[in-house]
From TrEMBL:
Recorded superkingdom: Eukaryota
Protein name, UniProt field: Uncharacterized protein
Length: 242
C-alpha cells in the first residue's frame, strides 16, 4: 500500500515543484532507507498488528514513535487543518517539525518526523545526521527547502519506493493514502503531518504506545467506511535485532 499527497504539482524543471514516487507502507523498505542514511542498525520500524492491548503487548519496546497510514479525503483534510490551527499555540518549541512541499513525500516525512523527535535516543549518523544538524535552527518551511535540496534523502527514498512489495505508482499519481507520525515530547503526545501548518497536541502522555493507539483509534472511527484502509508502524528496536 503506497501513500502520498497530490497537492503539489510534479516536475524537476526550474520553477516547478518536486514530486517523489509514493513510499509503500512497508517497515522493510523504511528500514533500508533509514539504515542507508545512517540510522543505527539496532533501531528500525515494525508492523503494529492491532491497537487493542493484547496486540500492543506484542510490539517490541521501547517504542519511540508510531507512523499512521490512512485515506485522506477532502473532508478529513479540512478537519485536520482546523484541528492543527486550534492546536498551534499549544506546541512545545522542542517538537521537531517540518512542512511538506514535495508531492507524495509524506511517507519519508513521517519517518523524518519520527526520527527527528528521538535523536537523543536513537544513534543517527551519516547523511541523516548531517541533515538534522543543518535543519536544527531552521523554520519548518526552511527545513522543507533543505529536504528539497537533499539528493541523498531523495535517492534513498526512491530506492525504498522501488523495493516495496507492490509496483510503485508514478510520481505524479493522485494517491489516496497519507502518513502522519505520533511522538511524545515534553510529556505531551503530538501528531505530525507536514501538510498541516502545525503539529497537533493530543494532550498529556505518559505511555506513547498506548496513548498514540487511543488517538489513532479516534482517527479510524472518524473514517467511516474507510476505516479498514489503514496501517500502523512502530519505531523501536529493529525487527531482526537481538
Amino acid at each position: 500500500m503506497s501513500a502520498g499527497d497530490s497537492s503539489s504539482t510534479a516536475g524537476q524543471q526550474a520553477g516547478e515543484k518536486l514530486h517523489w514516487v509514493p513510499l509503500e507502507s512497508s517497515p522493510e523498505a523504511m528500514n533500508k532507507m533509514v539504515h542507508r542514511l545512517g540510522v543505527d542498525q539496532l533501531a528500525g520500524f515494525s508492523d503494529v498488528w492491532g491497537l487493542d492491548d493484547e496486540l500492543l503487548a506484542m510490539v517490541a519496546q521501547p517504542v519511540h514513535a508510531l507512523v499512521f497510514l490512512f485515506p485522506l479525503r477532502n473532508a478529513t483534510r479540512e478537519a485536520r487543518m482546523a484541528e492543527a490551527a486550534a492546536a498551534a499555540n499549544t506546541v512545545s518549541p522542542n517538537v521537531w517539525f517540518m512542512r511538506q512541499t514535495i508531492g507524495n513525500a509524506c511517507g519519508t516525512m513521517a519517518v523524518l518526523h519520527a526520527l527527528g523527535n528521538c535523536q537523543d535516543r536513537i544513534p543517527i549518523g551519516g547523511e541523516l545526521a548531517a541533515f538534522y544538524a543543518q535543519a536544527k535552527d531552521l523554520s519548518p518551511r526552511d527545513r522543507a527547502a533543505l529536504l528539497e535540496a537533499s539528493s541523498a534523502i531523495a535517492e534513498s527514498h526512491s530506492a525504498s519506493a522501488a523495493e516495496g512489495q507492490t509496483a510503485a505508482p508514478p510520481p505524479d499519481a493522485d494517491v489516496l493514502h497519507h502518513y502522519a507520525a505520533f511522538v511524545a515530547v515534553d510529556g505531551c503526545l503530538y501528531e505530525l503531518d507536514g501538510m498541516l501548518a502545525s503539529p497537533i497536541n493530543h494532550g498529556p502522555s505518559a505511555d506513547l504506545l498506548h496513548d498514540a493507539a487511543r488517538a489513532i483509534k479516534k482517527r479510524i472511527e472518524a473514517l467511516g467506511d474507510d476505516a479498514e484502509m489503514v496501517s500502523v508502524i512502530a519505531l523501536g528496536p529493529a525487527p531482526d535485532a537481538d
